[in-house]
Amino acid sequence: MKKILVIGDSCSDVFRYGTCDRLSPEAPVAIMKPTRTTGNGGMAINVHENLLALGVDADIITNDIRPVKTRYVDEVSNQILLRVDEADTIRPITADTLNKIDFGQYDAVVISDYDKGFLSESDVIYISNRHKLIFMDTKKDLSGWALGVKFIKINEKELQRNHDWLLNTYVNNAGHLIATNGKDGAVLDFSERFPITKEHEVRDLSGAGDTFLAGLVASYIKNDDICEAIEFANRCAAWVVSQKGVAVVNPEKI
Predict the structure, then answer these.
(1) How do residues 14-38 score in pLDDT, each as one tens digit?
(2) What domains sit in the chain, N to C, each tagged with a CATH number?
(3) Using CA atoms, how far apart are residues 166 and 114, in angstroms rounded to an integer?
(4) If DSSP codes are grouped into helix, strand and coil, which group holds residue 249?
(5) What is the Cα gyration radius of the chain?
(6) Are 74 and 32 in contact (CB under 8 A)?
(7) 25: Cβ–Cβ under 8 A, 6 or more apart, which residues?
(8) How buried is residue 95: exposed, middle or buried, by Cβ count under 10 Å (0-12/13-18/19+)?
(9) What is the DSSP letter of 179?
(10) What global pTM score does this model have?
């Protein structure tokens, strides 16, 4: 069985659901009566959990002390009323931790970088110098430090911010770009489009990018076909957004 290493920053996702039947007399805001609370690991942990759910043998290196993202959600409409982020900065990975990684035991490395401080640009260079097959989803502004990454996955907003470098430097010289755009699916290297072929009712977009990344990696390491991997990742993400909260993909449902 192929083995994967996930490296990146993680958080704790908390969802506080409740009913909203009236507005506050003090301000034009809804009054929520809490009914239940759910929680799970988010960001890199969510990528890791989705890989495990897809039958991939995966390890993870991430931060122990995690920011908490608490979402207050109307139970009926699933509308997020408020999100509160606490302790949003993450302590960096140590050089000692990086130096102890045996990259040779992994078939691929997945960098899930939310740019909260766990990984620096130089850390990514260090990792890419030690492994040839790297998948990366990052919130950082892209430049030469990312040239060693074979597959970069970003969303449409991040694509627009980094468009010129990706088009003129990365795709022409280094690797492959997968840009996701919600219900419109994904685009490979600015040219080949992969629409969503099986749509589900959208309930919650939280964590969909993590699921897409996990599906992409799980399929690629099995079949070595990036087009097939994007189609599979689309199916994974399309299903997970039909669930409430940050859900883990169910292979039997996709």
Answers:
(1) 999 999 999 999 998 889 999 999 9
(2) 3-9+43-62+93-247 (3.40.1190.20)
(3) 19
(4) coil
(5) 19
(6) yes
(7) none
(8) exposed
(9) E
(10) 0.92
